[in-house]
Amino acid sequence: MRLNDLAPEIGQRKAKKRVGRGVGAGSGKTAGRGNKGQNARSGGGVRPGYEGGQMPIHRRLPKRGFKNYFKKIFAIVNVKDLNRFEDQSVVDEIALIKSGLVKGARDGIKVLGNGEIQVALNLRVNKISASAREKVEAAGGKIEVI
Protein backbone atom coordinates (compact mmCIF):
# COMPACT_ATOMS: atom_id res chain seq x y z
CA MET A 1 0.00 0.00 0.00
CA ARG A 2 1.22 3.47 -0.90
CA LEU A 3 0.08 6.94 0.10
CA ASN A 4 -1.56 7.45 -3.30
CA ASP A 5 -3.63 4.31 -2.74
CA LEU A 6 -5.27 5.76 0.39
CA ALA A 7 -8.83 6.98 -0.02
CA PRO A 8 -11.64 7.77 2.41
CA GLU A 9 -14.48 5.29 2.94
CA ILE A 10 -17.43 5.49 0.59
CA GLY A 11 -19.84 8.10 1.92
CA GLN A 12 -17.24 9.52 4.32
CA ARG A 13 -16.79 12.79 2.43
CA LYS A 14 -19.71 14.88 1.27
CA ALA A 15 -19.42 17.10 -1.80
CA LYS A 16 -19.88 20.84 -1.37
CA LYS A 17 -23.34 22.16 -2.23
CA ARG A 18 -23.17 23.93 -5.62
CA VAL A 19 -25.67 26.77 -5.54
CA GLY A 20 -26.89 28.99 -8.35
CA ARG A 21 -26.63 26.34 -11.08
CA GLY A 22 -30.18 26.50 -12.43
CA VAL A 23 -33.70 25.70 -11.21
CA GLY A 24 -33.33 21.96 -11.87
CA ALA A 25 -30.41 21.71 -9.44
CA GLY A 26 -32.68 22.50 -6.49
CA SER A 27 -30.89 25.58 -5.24
CA GLY A 28 -30.66 27.68 -8.38
CA LYS A 29 -32.05 31.18 -9.04
CA THR A 30 -31.81 32.74 -5.56
CA ALA A 31 -29.22 30.16 -4.44
CA GLY A 32 -30.95 29.39 -1.15
CA ARG A 33 -30.92 33.03 0.01
CA GLY A 34 -34.65 33.68 -0.33
CA ASN A 35 -36.11 36.76 -2.05
CA LYS A 36 -34.63 40.21 -1.44
CA GLY A 37 -33.61 41.52 1.94
CA GLN A 38 -30.29 42.24 3.60
CA ASN A 39 -29.15 38.62 3.62
CA ALA A 40 -29.93 38.15 -0.10
CA ARG A 41 -27.48 40.88 -1.13
CA SER A 42 -23.83 40.27 -1.88
CA GLY A 43 -21.81 41.35 1.13
CA GLY A 44 -25.07 41.45 3.08
CA GLY A 45 -25.78 40.23 6.55
CA VAL A 46 -25.34 41.69 10.00
CA ARG A 47 -22.40 41.83 12.36
CA PRO A 48 -22.07 39.29 15.20
CA GLY A 49 -24.22 40.28 18.18
CA TYR A 50 -26.63 42.42 16.15
CA GLU A 51 -30.23 41.87 17.27
CA GLY A 52 -32.17 43.68 14.57
CA GLY A 53 -32.13 47.06 16.27
CA GLN A 54 -33.27 45.72 19.63
CA MET A 55 -31.02 46.80 22.52
CA PRO A 56 -28.22 44.20 22.44
CA ILE A 57 -27.64 41.84 25.35
CA HIS A 58 -24.23 43.30 26.13
CA ARG A 59 -25.87 46.69 26.67
CA ARG A 60 -28.91 45.33 28.54
CA LEU A 61 -26.89 43.53 31.20
CA PRO A 62 -25.59 45.54 34.19
CA LYS A 63 -21.91 46.31 34.40
CA ARG A 64 -20.15 45.50 37.66
CA GLY A 65 -16.75 46.07 39.14
CA PHE A 66 -13.70 48.05 38.16
CA LYS A 67 -10.94 47.29 35.70
CA ASN A 68 -7.62 48.87 36.57
CA TYR A 69 -5.85 49.49 33.26
CA PHE A 70 -2.71 50.65 35.06
CA LYS A 71 -2.29 47.44 37.08
CA LYS A 72 1.18 45.97 36.93
CA ILE A 73 1.46 42.22 36.31
CA PHE A 74 4.61 40.63 37.68
CA ALA A 75 6.12 37.32 36.65
CA ILE A 76 6.35 35.12 39.76
CA VAL A 77 9.46 33.04 40.44
CA ASN A 78 9.90 30.90 43.55
CA VAL A 79 13.24 30.50 45.35
CA LYS A 80 13.23 26.71 44.77
CA ASP A 81 13.24 27.30 40.99
CA LEU A 82 16.50 29.28 41.17
CA ASN A 83 18.58 26.19 42.01
CA ARG A 84 19.01 25.48 38.29
CA PHE A 85 21.44 28.42 37.93
CA GLU A 86 25.18 28.07 38.52
CA ASP A 87 26.83 29.40 41.69
CA GLN A 88 27.60 33.18 41.66
CA SER A 89 25.78 33.74 38.36
CA VAL A 90 23.76 36.91 37.69
CA VAL A 91 20.04 36.15 37.48
CA ASP A 92 18.02 38.87 35.76
CA GLU A 93 14.99 38.98 33.47
CA ILE A 94 16.94 37.84 30.41
CA ALA A 95 18.44 34.85 32.25
CA LEU A 96 15.01 33.83 33.58
CA ILE A 97 13.44 34.01 30.12
CA LYS A 98 16.27 31.95 28.59
CA SER A 99 15.88 29.29 31.29
CA GLY A 100 12.13 29.10 30.68
CA LEU A 101 11.07 30.21 34.18
CA VAL A 102 9.49 33.38 32.80
CA LYS A 103 7.45 33.31 29.61
CA GLY A 104 7.06 36.56 27.68
CA ALA A 105 7.36 40.17 28.76
CA ARG A 106 5.74 41.32 32.00
CA ASP A 107 5.94 44.51 34.06
CA GLY A 108 8.66 43.00 36.21
CA ILE A 109 9.75 39.97 38.20
CA LYS A 110 8.90 39.14 41.79
CA VAL A 111 10.72 36.42 43.75
CA LEU A 112 8.71 34.56 46.38
CA GLY A 113 10.10 32.43 49.23
CA ASN A 114 8.55 29.05 48.44
CA GLY A 115 11.15 26.27 48.81
CA GLU A 116 14.86 26.31 49.62
CA ILE A 117 17.92 27.56 47.73
CA GLN A 118 21.39 25.97 47.80
CA VAL A 119 23.32 28.23 45.41
CA ALA A 120 24.61 31.77 45.94
CA LEU A 121 23.18 34.01 43.22
CA ASN A 122 23.27 37.68 42.31
CA LEU A 123 19.61 38.54 41.78
CA ARG A 124 18.50 41.59 39.79
CA VAL A 125 14.70 41.69 40.17
CA ASN A 126 11.92 44.26 40.59
CA LYS A 127 10.42 42.87 43.79
CA ILE A 128 11.30 40.25 46.38
CA SER A 129 9.40 39.00 49.42
CA ALA A 130 10.93 39.19 52.90
CA SER A 131 11.19 35.39 53.25
CA ALA A 132 12.85 35.07 49.82
CA ARG A 133 15.34 37.83 50.74
CA GLU A 134 16.31 35.95 53.93
CA LYS A 135 16.79 32.65 52.10
CA VAL A 136 18.89 34.11 49.27
CA GLU A 137 21.13 36.05 51.67
CA ALA A 138 21.48 33.01 53.94
CA ALA A 139 22.74 31.02 50.95
CA GLY A 140 25.37 33.72 50.31
CA GLY A 141 23.62 35.52 47.47
CA LYS A 142 23.17 39.23 46.78
CA ILE A 143 19.99 41.06 45.82
CA GLU A 144 19.67 44.19 43.69
CA VAL A 145 16.17 45.61 43.41
CA ILE A 146 15.84 47.49 40.12
Keywords:
2 domains, Ribosomal Protein L15, Chain: K, domain 2, three-stranded parallel sheet, about 150 residues
Description of the molecule:
The protein is of the alpha/beta class. It folds into two domains: 15-63, no CATH class; 75-145, Ribosomal Protein L15, Chain: K, domain 2, CATH 3.100.10.10. The chain has helices at residues 57-60, 93-99, 130-138, and strands at residues 75-78, 90-91, 109-112, 122-125, 127-128, 142-145. A three-stranded parallel β-sheet has the order 1-3-5. Strands 2-4-6 form a three-stranded parallel β-sheet. The longest helix is centred in the C-terminal third of the chain and has 9 residues, at 130-138. The model has no long low-confidence stretch (mean pLDDT 92).
What characterizes the major β-sheet? 3 strands, parallel
Widest β-sheet, arrangement of strands: 1-3-5
Backbone structural class: alpha/beta
How big is the Rg? 31 Å
CATH uppermost class of the largest domain: Alpha Beta
Helix segment count?
A: 3
What is the name of the CATH architecture of the largest domain?
Ribosomal Protein L15, Chain: K, domain 2
Distance between the first and last residues' Cα = 64 Å
Shape: elongated
Low-confidence stretches: none
CATH topology of the largest domain: Ribosomal Protein L15, Chain: K, domain 2
What fraction strand?
5-15%
Could you report the average pLDDT, rounded to the nearest whole number?
Answer: 92
Helicity, in percent? 10-25%
Number of strands: 6
Order of helices and strands: HEEHEEEHE
Number of domains: 2
